[in-house]
Amino acid sequence: MGDRLRVMSANLYWGRADADALLALLRQRRIDALGCQELGHEQAEAIADELPHALLVPSSGADGTGIALRHPARLEMADRLGADLGM
């Protein structure tokens, strides 16, 4: 069996989720890859502290989004994340 990859998705409630609690959860669960929706600026800073290889686009509304990884990988942002899906 190979190495495990711990993946998490989080809806951050219009940027109102507790950034310290999110950071603690990432550390406690040893998350390797995080996809997030409704990402705010405070949460983006906390995520980047733990998962430094990231493409985070925070917002003060519901359209903040991002992906963050523990280890380097090639990350590309499609046109508002929909171009690769034919949208």
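Next protein, fold it too.
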Amino acid sequence: MPRLLDLFCGAGGAAVGYHRAGFDVVGVDICRTYLEIGVTRIGSFRPHLVVGDVENLPLASANAHAILAYESFHHIPNRRRAMASYDRVLRN
């Protein structure tokens, strides 16, 4: 199953849709409160939701097939560091 990273996933709404579409989804957001709302709202049917900073993704290298960071890149303070982090976690 292809792994998709949903960065800046917020409460995980889109991540659930990708999960239902057949992706192994890992949602990442820096705000624990958003993720806690997502866990409460989604219940036991949910993708993995992880608190993390996209400039230093807390994920293993070569772990994802694709990254989605919808309407979020302009919020990243150090975009070069974020891109290096994306590159590290993406499979070749």
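About the second fold: The first helix runs from residue 13 to 20.
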